[in-house]
Amino acid sequence: MGGIDSLLLMGAGFGLVYGVLLQKGDFCFVSAFRDWFAFKHNRVLQGVILAVLVILFGWSLILAAGLAPLDRLWLPPVGGTALIGGIVFGVGMYVAGACASGTLYRCGMGYAYFWLVFLGMKGGYLFYAALHEPFFVPYYFEPLAVSGPITLYNYIPPEAVTVAAFLLLVYLFFRMFPKQTGSASSAEGSRQDKGGRKELSGNPLRWKSWDARMVGILVGLTVTLQFLWWSIWGITGPGTRIAGVIWSRLAGEAAVLDNPYLGAMFAAYPGAVMGPSEWLIIFIIAGAGISSFLSGTWRFRRPRLNRVPNAILGGALMGLGSRMAPGCNIGNIISGIPALSVHSFLASAGIALGVYLGYVVAQRNLQKQMSRLEQEAGLKQAGS
User: Fold this and answer.
1) Residue closest to 86 by CA, chosen among 332, 358, 362, 340
2) What is the SS3 assignment for 111?
3) Cβ of 381: how many Cβ atoms within 10 Å?
């Protein structure tokens, strides 16, 4: 079997695993941030934190042992584009109701709404590609540039990062998993024993949900293995190439390869074709579909018509923002923070801020609606 065939299989395999994990843990970054803003506590956010720390520990250990080169990290240049693009992406997440990875696993679960988000993201990628050379390069990236790529691994030995990540991981693990709740990973996959304690039972793949914190640990281990054997995990970079492949089938391959941005995206490919990273994206959807089918939760769900604009606009903003930053919630939070990328720290802050801005605007609109309804109810009572 040739090298490219092995990579295609590896991409498909990792995609299946990610699809199962994301679906079982309902591992969406929008809910992680939004529920924290609203309730100050959220297990999905804890899962995200645990995933990042497991990856930080694993990657720094791999780098310290010389098992992977430092240039395997994804390190964009540093600039104000990271923060601005992150904000645009975060607002798009809130409007759409899902992040890049959350969109994929919900597509696999049968939500037609999130297929519209998926298509909206493709439109955002292509819109950016059309304006990359004439607008974004001279009027956005160049004026906001600060420096080239920077990783803190250039200043902090990987060995020191490994120790710090391990200690923090152990501390947070015991804080997040107190003894009285540590035995029940899922209410759907547990039963009561004679002593009244919850006990895991049955095939875990048939459980409707897994504890998001344990999913975070499993995601971290999977991303670490992918880094060791192959590459970092990304979503919107491969997603842009998928959009390019789709566009090449509609407008011809030359229309894609002659575009300065898309042409560069396919520079290492034999044309506008799907590679291992793109198959990973497709198999995330497939893995989530298989996982939800096994648990009996798969079904086709029609979108509500009043939500269709949110899907298209939110998806387009995510696609555009991921290119303006560049990177999405996976590229910058899951893969970028463990890379100690200064760009990703800025972009991650922008993503969180974007979700927060969306949350604040939505809350104010809700309060206005409630106030208007109360006033209308008061007028009716006065009139009667």
Assistant:
1) 332
2) strand
3) 8
pLDDT tens digit string along 186-210?
444 544 444 443 445 689 999 999 9
256 occurs within a structural domain: yes
Side-chain half-sphere of 323: how many Cα atoms within 13 Å? 28
Rg (CA), the chain: 22
- The answer to whether the beta carbons of residues 202 and 193 sit under 8 Å apart is no
**Encoded tokens for 93:** 């997440």
Domain-embedded: residue 106: yes
pLDDT in tens, 206-230: 999 999 999 999 999 999 999 999 9
Which range marks the domain in which residue 121 is found? 7-178+205-383
For 91, the token pair is 């607002």
CB of 215 closer than 8 Å to CB of 24: yes
In order of 28, 185, 284, the CA distances from 214 in angstroms are: 14, 8, 19
- The domain tally of the chain equals 1
Domain assignment of residue 199, yes or no: no
**Model pTM?**
0.92
Residues listed for the chain: 384
109 assigned to some structural domain = yes
CA distance 41 to 324: 31
